[in-house]
Amino acid sequence: MMVIGPEHALAQLAASLAFADAGAEPSRIRLYADAGAATGAAPVGGPMAEITLAKPCGTIAAGVLTLHPVNQAGAMVLANGKPQSAHWINGDGKLVAAGTVTDMDHGGDFRVEGGTTAPGDESPTLYAGGLVLLGTVVLD
User: Which of 30, 37, 60, 120 is deepest in the core (most CB within 10 A)?
Assistant: First the structure.
């Protein structure tokens, strides 16, 4: 396995941040019930919630890019269900990253708070009209 240098890694994070902030709109994280969308595939069905990020959407400190939602109180849940995947899109609607979604106690790529996680599940059940909070999402 090839290892890149720390300056190169920092340049990659800066490029990711610049790409995410491209476009007139802020970048967003869309939560989907479709687990297959975690690979970056087109999701089946619409988003359960859309979390708008600040612009700039994150900061880089100590070699880590941390994302910042524009609304710290949470985003409105649009449909009932369990978020299984997320797409982070930039202001032009282009995919920045895709991954799995879990509650804060599990190891998903995107971790959320809101709803209730049933015993044996890793992702909370969200309810339309409620709020979902983006937990710490860190790229390093």
Answer: 37
pTM score:
0.92
Phi, psi of 119 (to 5 degrees): -55, 135
Tokens of 64: 């880590």
Answer for the pair 136, 111: CB distance below 8 angstroms, yes or no: yes
Amino acid at 111: R
Contact between 70 and 134 under an 8 Å Cβ cutoff? The reply is no
Per-run averaged pLDDT (10 residues), the chain, 140 residues: 91 95 96 95 96 95 89 95 97 96 92 93 96 81
